[in-house]
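Reviewers of the previous submission asked for a worked example of the structure-prediction workflow described in the proposal, so we include one complete record here. The input consisted solely of the amino acid sequence. No template or homolog information was supplied to the procedure at any stage.
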Amino acid sequence: MRTRFVYLLLAFAVNHLSNAHAGAALDPNVAPKGEEEVSNVFRDMGVVQKRAMPKGERWLVSTYASFDFSDGPYSNYSFHVNPGYAVSDFVEIYLNFVPFHIVSPRSIVDKLQTQISPPVTVIEAKPKMQFGAEVLWAPLYGKDSMGISRIIRSDTFVKFGASMISFEGGDSGMSFNLGVGKTFFFSKNTGFRFCVDWGYMQQIINFGAAVPTKSFASMLLTEFGLTFYL
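From that input alone, the workflow returned the following structure tokens.
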């Protein structure tokens, strides 16, 4: 009984002391501040998500190879050299220049000329050079992890282009393309760019005839290359 009485007395004393100090003011040095502090690490991560890298008001040079996957008789490979300017972090404009095209016949051409009687001759004008313009809009930014210790910043863009193609024989035609792609930034001055385009290209059939036929054909294009930020 005596031990139980001592425990009850101690519990009463502790409860009384707690109530007496309940209204005491807190030390202002340990009181929470009105605005939550954010670590510099998390603050930098927020910047990465909003903008991959500053590009506005910078001169650019975009170089890439293009491959077409059309159902035409010839495969067309081209190398583009596009000087440009970043109007803002989201919009880039380019002059499109293709100094040469590499054109090679597909297997269907050999079949039509050697395995069909009478043979069918496929005559299509081959593109030589190309001049035009491109507009790129990159509204999405992000980052991609490479392993466990490296992060590569990137953006996602939509691109539209229009060009004039000069063919052998002195004739010309139009080409339009609309694509979606990504740019991965290796540094503040270099990026790797990959894009998939839907192309709408004018072709010249019956090349060399008195009245050649011009027609548009749709095709799928893939592009990849380097972009330099000057």
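The radius of gyration is 33 Å. We consider this example representative of the routine output the project will generate in years two and three.
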